[in-house]
Amino acid sequence: MEEYPHLPEYADSYIVHLQKKDRTKSTIKRYYYDLLDFFAWVRVMKDNDDLHSIQHLDALTLNEYFLFLSEQREYQPATTKRVFTVIKSLFSFLHSRRKIVFNPFSDLELTLEENIQFSDDDFISDEEFKVLFQTLSSYEGLTEKQQKYRHLLIKRNEAILSLLYRYGITLQEITNIEMKHVHFTQQELTVINKKETRLISLDDDTHQLLYQYKEDIPESIRPRTYSSDRFFIAFDYQRGTYRFDYGKYEPKPLTVIAIQKMLRQEIRRSELRDGISSQHLRRTAILNLLKEGKSQEDVQLWFGLKSNLTLNRYEAYLETTKMKKVYSKAND
User: pTM for the complete prediction?
Assistant: First the structure.
């Protein structure tokens, strides 16, 4: 967001169009910030937010954005639908002005209701995770500059992926982790979601990854012990080191957008199926805990879910999977 403080020119034209229709200032402001957020995501997905990139957004890709809002940002359905309306209106405007040839919203159904059933493609398999995790330490497909500093980022990225897959922590929660939240001696992690706090126990592998990542950061710019410095910090490829904000005199935090971009690049390098995202990792973590026989109340508390309604979809998927196995065994 910091690198792109303004909307693309064609989106500015849309805002002007709304102003001419005498929309209230509060409505214009809300549309503006919804669109800023959307274009930040587009740049992660397409590396650009020009009209060419917008034209090549299909219904499946757009739907991933709304799933990101509901599952990662934990937006209420009403809020997600509001954002859906804003972006749909933008695309209709562009299509009516012949800025884009095809409007993908004509093929898009908002599949955010609680009764939508999961399929196998909504999760990531153990084998897919292993391939993705191994890719993080691989140098294949990297530019010369990326290869030069890769060793400094491996443990950071492995730690993030481990937290996503094993504990289902959201991207926002990861960026909220401060140094004082990581309890190395107790092997625990405090996770904060808005005003809610939960404490999770770390397995040995994840605990070691977090510690090794911290130790890889030069001591002069390392997050200070027991401080409110963000634990996961951004990397500067130009200088070949982690970023430090000398104005605030603290390490520069890693952003949600930066993590999304990292994941997308690594998934692409791993040559896994299209569409895998952080949502798949979180869903799989939730599913695995339910498979272990944990109650819905325990799972809701563990993942910081606002209600247990979402868990009904997971239970339905597990039941369907169980029935498929029974049917398959009966026909062997």
Answer: 0.81
